[in-house]
TrEMBL record:
Residues 251-441 form the Carbohydrate kinase FGGY C-terminal domain. It holds the Pfam family FGGY_C. The keyword Lipid metabolism does not apply. Belongs to the FGGY kinase family. The keyword ATP-binding applies. GO terms for molecular function: ATP binding; glycerol kinase activity; rhamnulokinase activity. This is Rhamnulokinase. Keywords: ATP-binding, Disulfide bond, Kinase, Nucleotide-binding, Rhamnose metabolism, Transferase. Signal peptide: none annotated.
Length: 476
């Protein structure tokens, strides 16, 4: 029995998982909300509140599944907390959507040419990559007290165990990791003035991080030998590990707040063409490379819904999607990955402004905005996969959509049309499954390569296929 703590930008869950009859079974024991908090010190995560939810979830887990042997934690990437010399968190971590890195980006690129930075890290340029956030932080008083930089899943893990460590999947999102050696880059650390001992050691996914502390055992009622296992702690890495592909030739879209669109490859592609196309080489489970582009995601729709609610209209998503599906194809589209959509607030107006600026029809109803976001996402997916195939030389025969967006039938149908490929949707909880399966393998409940884990996910999940030619879907 294993437990996944899986926290995304809009919500978290504690999920129990166990193997029986060649399948993985899961049960969600606790769900909780999440979202960046606007404070007078910028946009931040309430990480202590999230930790309290994790503890509440582990308490429920201990009651329901007393035989749990291991816990794994994943969250979104790039963000971190700073610990002082006594190991205390200095302040709530910044959210990557805080637009604080403008000067820091310029400052880093003055010190190292972006082309050279890419040759070392292989990382897509995103204004919120950890390297830029850290340089922005160096101007704040809190930086002077900072002794350790700890990625968010590792911070939660540190509070559970007292042990500090990280894994390559999340470390690769910082732009401080050398994509070729898969270790911290001494050159980049020196460039931005960070001592190597501020960063924790990198452990491969599938290493025991440490035992859950006696204090947490007392608080939760967990068995006293339960451990924290290092998994693909970047949520996207765990999701990609659980893509239910049974044959090569697949692409994936991990679809949620963001859409991570790409392929799995064996060695990083660090060419100038790849950099110009803004593809990333993030570290995957078992040394694989996640060659993908981070496109905007359902955030544009989530934020629009939030704005309409603030304005007094609480739309039902199901109804909105049904109305959007009735609208004709060929409506306006926006660049979902653009910097202008990263920060929260006023999303429908920003979408309308982008359409107006480009001389396109401007959406007015909520259904039109919804359709515009989904058409834009599908268009971005289609383009990204054409480029991924050409840059990697890998053929794409089918596209797996995992995560929350796999439940959005309209988006899946539009994706099949835009990519001209069969789309296989599901599972929704791929991230938690990837987290659980790596733990299960570490603790001997299963064995095999990533392909075997994926076959197990395929055998355990209900998947829906959307064909590019047909308007309907098959569920198996
Ligand atoms: C998805 C994700 C993406 C990362 C973004 C910010 O949840 O982890 O992979 O680019 O969030 O961390």
């Amino acid at each position: 029995m294993f437990a996944a703590v899986d926290i995304g930008a809009s919500g978290g869950r504690v999920i129990a998982g166990w193997l029986a009859d060649g399948k993985i079974n899961t049960e969600v024991v606790h769900r909780f909300g999440n979202g960046p908090q606007q404070t007078d010190r910028g946009l931040r995560w309430d990480i202590r509140g999230l930790y309290d939810e994790v503890i509440a979830g582990l308490r429920l887990l201990a009651e329901r599944f007393p035989a749990v042997v291991s816990i794994g934690i994943d969250t979104w990437a790039v963000d971190y907390g700073l610990l002082d010399a006594d190991g205390e968190l200095i302040e709530d971590p910044h959210c990557y959507r805080d637009p604080r890195t403008g000067d820091a980006v310029r400052s880093v690129h003055d010190r190292i040419d972006p082309a050279e930075l890419y040759q070392i890290t292989g990382l897509q340029y995103l204004s919120f990559n950890t390297i830029y956030q850290l340089v922005a932080e160096q101007d704040c008083p809190e930086w002077r007290r900072a002794a350790k930089i700890v990625m968010l899943p590792d911070l939660l893990g540190y509070w559970l165990t007292g042990d500090l460590g990280t894994d390559v999947t999340n470390a690769s999102s910082t732009a401080l990791l050398d994509a070729s050696t898969r270790d911290w880059s001494p050159r980049l650390l020196q460039l931005i003035g960070i001592d190597a001992d501020m960063l924790p050691p990198i452990q491969p996914a599938g290493t025991v991080r440490g035992r859950i502390s006696p204090e947490v055992i007392k608080q939760t009622g967990l068995p006293d030998d339960v451990v924290l296992t290092s998994i693909g702690s970047h949520d996207t890495a765990s999701a990609v590990a659980a893509v239910p592909a049974t044959e090569p030739g697949f692409a994936y879209i991990s679809s949620g707040t963001w859409s991570l669109v790409g392929l799995e490859i064996a060695e990083p592609i660090l060419t100038e063409d790849s950099r110009r196309a803004n593809f990333t080489n993030e570290g995957g489970v078992d040394g694989r490379i996640r060659y993908l582009r981070n496109e905007g995601g359902l955030w544009l729709l989530q934020e629009s819904l939030r704005q309409w609610k603030l304005d007094g209209v609480d739309h039902d998503l199901g109804r909105l999607l049904a109305a959007a599906a009735e609208l004709p194809a060929g409506g306006p589209t926006v660049d979902v990955g653009a910097e202008e959509f990263i920060a929260p607030g006023g999303m429908p107006e920003r979408i309308a402004a982008a359409c107006r600026r480009d001389g396109q029809p401007v959406p007015t109803t909520a259904a039109e905005f919804t359709r515009c976001v989904l058409d834009s996402l599908a268009l971005a997916y289609g383009r990204t996969l054409v480029e991924a195939a050409s840059l990697s030389g890998q053929e794409i025969e089918r596209v797996h959509v995992v995560g929350g967006g796999s439940q959005n039938a309209l988006l899946c149908r539009l994706t099949a049309e835009a990519t001209g490929r069969e789309v296989i949707a599901g599972p929704v909880e791929a991230t938690a499954l990837g987290n659980l399966l790596v733990q299960a393998r570490t603790h001997g409940a299963i064995s095999g390569a990533l392909e075997d884990l994926r076959a197990l996910v395929a055998a355990s999940s209900e998947l829906t296929t959307y064909s590019p030619q047909r308007q309907d879907a098959d569920t198996r």
